[in-house]
Amino acid sequence: MLMVRPLLAVVLLAMLAPGWAAPAEDKKAEDRVVKLDKLTMTAPEGWEKKQPANAIIAYEFHAPAAKDDKQNGRLTIMKAGGSVEANVDRWYAQFSQPDGSKTKDRAKIEKTTIGGKTVHLADISGTYKDQRGPMAPAVEREKYRMLAAIIETDGGNFFVKLYGPAKTIAEHEKAFRAMIDSLK
């Protein structure tokens, strides 16, 4: 009986010692933290962190597809150059409208301050020209939507883009905004 207590003490001390494995829930929460130089934000619970498709992308997550949608939403985060206007214009060019109208006329653009930083938010819909690589042909995807944010920092701009089938993106719109609003 005396041997049980010292063994219990050793087990308890080992559990409290530095380096003890964190519970799975803590690891999942840690995987959702996105570090943007000195800034951070938190990706929504339930979004799956993925290996970025290329070296330009710093973070990639998949937002689960809505019922009857075949594609997940794809969120990418990267730091890149170019003016806000030039990047937004490039995003407009990635979309076309079934009725031939200008994507720019249908898009919603908002400028706000979050976490002390200027953030430009974009909401763009239409037929998306999905270009997955420099040599790959673009695939036109009808009824797609992109929610995006450009976060201005002294060290360069960060680009956060969530795109996919319009229904899927609509289901994740509040979660995307909560992620952007978590910027600090």
Largest sheet: 8 strands, antiparallel
Beta-strand content: 35-45%
CATH topology: Protein Transport Mog1p, Chain A
Average per-residue pLDDT, rounded, comes to 87
User: What is the name of the CATH architecture?
Assistant: 3-Layer(aba) Sandwich
Bulk shape: globular
Tell me the structural class.
alpha+beta
Low-confidence stretches: 7-20
- How helix-rich are the residues, as a percent range? 25-40%
Helix and strand element order: HHEEEEEHEHEEEEH
**CATH level 1 class label:** Alpha Beta
Put simply, the count of helices is 5
Cα end-to-end separation: 53 Å
Q: What count of domains describes the coordinates?
A: 1
Overall radius of gyration: 21 Å
The overall strand count is 10
Give a structural overview.
- This protein has one domain: 3-Layer(aba) Sandwich (Protein Transport Mog1p, Chain A), CATH 3.40.1000.
- It starts with a helix and ends with a helix.
- Strands 3, 4, 5, 6, 7, 8, 9 and 10 form an eight-stranded antiparallel β-sheet that branches.
- It is built from five helices and ten strands, in the order ααβββββαβαββββα.
- The protein has 184 residues and is an alpha+beta fold.
- Helices cover 28% and strands 38% of the residues.
- The protein is globular, with a radius of gyration of 21 Å.
- The longest helix has 16 residues.
